[in-house]
Amino acid sequence: MVDHKKNIKICLASSAGGHLTQLLKLDECWSGHQIFFITTSNIVSDKLSNIAKVYVTGECNRNHPVLLLKALIRCTKAVWKEKPDVVISTGAATGCIACFLGKCLGAKVIWLDSITNVDHLSMSGRLTRHIANLFLVQWPKLAQKYKNVEYMGAVI
Amino acid sequence: MIFLTVGSQFGFERLVKSIDEIVADGEIEDDIYGQIGLSSYTPSNFKATSTLDKNLFDQYLSKASHVIGHAGMGTIITALDLNKPLLVMPRLHAYREVVNDHQVFIAREFEQMGHILVAYNENELAVKINELKYFSPKPRSSKTKAVTDRIIKFLNIIDA
For the whole prediction, is pTM greater than 0.90? Predict the structure, then answer.
């Protein structure tokens, strides 16, 4: 039997907190592949570093341009160094940045919009939707509302 | 023990202060331990810390009989996973507690499904804390497998 599974390098990018909790629910997906994390806080990096290498970008959101720039620089260094084949993210801003950077280097992008977005996509999700190869949502009404978006269920 | 948590990012003074006052009024008998974030308010009537690493957070959550928190997804997911009765108070954009009111929407959805209790403002807290004693969260079945199967299918295509 031919084993189709080639070892690919996957970047797992997510803000600490609920976004990361949702991302980690998907761990079956990266079993057998190389992974590294990009996240926003040292608080979670201890737990994650038991699993794989962790790059911390610092907290950032759209209201803090300086923090966003800092995160962009750190994210760029991480993605440039690791050159992932795939980026999987649940958001938020840092996840979005990692997806765009990965895409620039030829990576495939998989996005799972956070379950917190009930009536409409997150802003990071709306941006990433244009470059994602696979875009998943966790409420069925969102798959009806937006094109190229799939609903398979919620991870919690 | 009641575990109070406001999430890993910011303080939530409105919730912490209200709980502190409710404890001072003698309306909560249980011990409370709080993870209160970077808070400008320090409670006088229960023990609290600003941050907990994930492992310690999980430990306190496991030991707790009931949980009170902000309506953050991390809090909700981990409480549901451990089947802990959870009361949330959503952070509000009007008080600059959060970037938008998504916590209100998510709290409402999960409340309607019977998974959590919600106090939409601090005036509702005392009553809801009383209800929390008798609250059994409805278990939630997730579709994680369907989501991971879809992603694995995609990864296998790019593998080939």
Answer: no
